Every structure is written in C-alpha cells, then in structure tokens.
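ABC transporter permease subunit structure dump, as promised
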Amino acid sequence: MTQSSLTTKRKPGFVVLEVILLVMALLYLFPVIYLFGASMKKSAEFYEPLKLPHWYFGNYAKVFEQTHLFQALGNTLYICAVTLAINILVSSMAGYIIGRNNHRYFQLLFYVFLSGMIIPVQTSMVPLFKLQQILHMQSSLTYLCLLYVAGGIPYGTMVYSGFIKSVPRELEESASIDGAGRFRTFWSIIFPLLLPATGTILVTTVFWYWNDFISPLLYLDINHTPTLITLIFKFKVDRGVDWGPIFSICVLATLPLIVLFLFTQKYLIKGFVAGAVKG
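structure tokens r here:
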C-alpha cells in the first residue's frame, strides 16, 4: 500500500477534524465578534441580539467626545513600556545567571524568586498603599510601574532561566575565546537568542498590565490619571445602561491587544514549548 493511498484513506478523518477545530475557533471568536457588532448598534437595536448591526459609528463619536481616551491610552502605554523594559532587563540577566549555574546557591536563589509568585497580591495592598503615602507618590504612574516590576520579575526570571537551557554553551565559549566579556557575550549573542522567551513575557505581562483594574483603582486617581480599564469603569458608571458607547470603548481598548497578539503569537508558542521541553 503506497503512501498516497494511506493519505487518501485518512483524508475524511482530517476533514472532520478541521471542521471540529473550525467550529471551536468560531465559538472562541463569538464574544469578540459580538463585541464589535454590538458597538455598531443604536440603543433601540441593542436588545435584539440576532439583528445585524447597521455600521452605526455614533457610539464611537460619543466615546471620543465624552472621555479622555488618548490620555488613558498614553498612561497605559507608559506603564506597559516602562514596566516591560525594566522587567525584561532585570529578569533576563537574573534568568541567565540562574539557568547557567547548577550550584546550590543559585538554585536557592531561583526559589527565592519563585516565592514572589506565591504571595497573594491582596495581602500586600494595605502596606503598599501606606508606603505610597509615606513616599508622597499618590496617583503616581511611576509608583504603579515599580509595583508591576516587583510582581513581574519572578515570572520573567522563571521563563528566562528555563529557556536559557536550550541555548548551547559553546556559543559563550567561542565568544570568550574571541575576547568578549560576560556582559558583552550576553547582550550581543545570548539575548538575541532569547527572543521567543522575551515574546512570551511581552504578551503575557502586557495582558496583565493592560487589564489590571484593582491596582490602578487603588493607587491612581481615576479622574486625573486614568488607565484604559479605569476609564471604562468610570464611563460605565456615568453612562448607566447605554451599552452602545460602553461596548465601543471596550473595542477601542481591545484593538491594541489583538494587534500585539497577531504579531507576537509565534514567539509566545515558541517560548512556551521551549520552556516546557528544556526547562
């Protein structure tokens, strides 16, 4: 029996599998499709879920007229950019050192980093709020960035230390023979190879920073320094049950995440697979 005949016999099974996967994909996409569709409906049409939208953009106009959307977007982008830069910088170097050393001291250090992921965030809210008052950093974006950095470094170190084991040591030995120091070797040779791990951290942590509601609500003044998620909350309180503009602002807040995921999904998958196999 030839390979082509085997492929022909298996083809119906693959078709059924593809149909099942397509149906599952549509089920997962349905909330997103409904969100976009509902944002295009007028108030009178909103409670007719099966009625197709008429591409009504008045809801989006209300969002731009009645909210400080660009200010909230700028604050959110600032938080994500600063936090990710520090997180990647620190956790990549920490993960590199921990992953390349098998000494008991470094293993203990690895568990110290992991302990930061065990402590519930809720238990530290009151002390962190009092610390913010002591430092006179009320409603400070920088203070919120520092909190996110402290919470993100343990996860980033775990991802990098697992991924670094898939990078051959021979690359570092060759660089050392050529006269490169440890620091130059890391940034010129090793760090570019950690791009899948960096993509994994980028996507997963950006979703966390972007969608976090409790921390901006506690540590920022939502009237003067709003983030996107607190702006949506305030807009919902002000609008009541006028769902069209509320869905529209949710769409505008979701679009950057969708674009980011489309461009970084391959790195996310590579990072997860490499960490699982090599870690």
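Confidence is low (pLDDT under 50) at residues 1-8, 275-279.
lmk if u need the other ones
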